[in-house]
Design goal:
alpha+beta, 40% helix
Amino acid sequence: MATRNDVRKLLGARAGSVRTSGLGYPGYGPSALQSRRDWIYYLGETWPSGTAMPASESEALSLPPFGRGLALLANAVAATDWHATRFDPNLGVAVKLADQPSVVTDPNPMTTAWQYRWAATEDGVLFGNHFALLGDLDFRTLRPGWLVPIAADQVWLLTDPDGMYWWTIGGEMFTPDELLHVSYGSRSGELLGRGVLAQYAESLGGFVAAEQHSANYFAGGTLPPAVLQSPTAVTQDQADELKSKWREMTATREPVVLPQGYLLTPVVSNAEQSQLVESRTWNAELCAMILGIPPWKLGLQGPTMTYANVETADIDFIRDSADRYARPLSESFSKWLMPRGTNVVFDYADRMRADQRTTSDVLTAYVAAGIVTEDEARAVIGRPPKAGTTDENSTPVGVPELTSTDVTP
């Protein structure tokens, strides 16, 4: 178990370390999934010409569809509240604990719970793993009461032939019970999860190359602005001098007077005919596919949707996309940071609730059938109990309970 001194020492090492970006994915140790870009760099070779270079983290995040899609996923998880529950055998359901563990309410004392969930989701999407150093014990749970998140690409995995492994951070080794490790999905027998940067690096690299080509295209970098023809043959030196004078004249944007016999032919291109629009649209849809989110959430064309369809699609997004990264985090908290029988769950009720009219109809039916009380129904929509009213066969608010001694025979 790490002490506060260990945390300060580790944070100092992190602050003094140099993060290497654009050279691959150093967060994946020797037994993890490596991209071809890593090995090209390690072996001192050059990348094959005509093939897009796999995208680095900064390049992928610079793509608007990818960056926006990542933000949608991270916010969907971060903005959803979570709490610890425990099964109540008397009630037959899991009940939210009145005294929540501190690692749930305030995982990292240096930030907010929202920020912690956001960062953990980004770690999971980009690198497939989330790491945090365990803090002091919480006397209520006898488990770590706080965490210090570690950048996923600064953690390396060392293994030996006997199957033992250690985590290394900044040259310092840690045993598995000193770090919280959340894997967001891996093959059997593998410890480290797979993130989109390693799994789809080359596809994202093609997107980056296409964006660079588009930028050069619209800046006039892929085609010359014009063709200047001379009536006589010219040498290379004369051609270079002619081009230099042409650039000087066009830089002032003044009318150009050509010598007799010279012919100027502007080069005009069409972005639509060059399929740049279709290519960029396809790449944006590719980002949505990689991140597992509906394309219409990125402003792309989607099916014609009514209000009810959009509402259902939002519920599907939470269930199919956001929970993909929320569930590994909550289950890791339940398994490693909670006492046996206590589980950490995300409360999706508010985010997956239907429209107000549908919710009202359902609650009215539940109250009429006796499934829930009026006050329980009001609690669902965030309303307090009705003042001065109670449910049937209960004592009104403000009236003392009668006891057997108060009853006159």
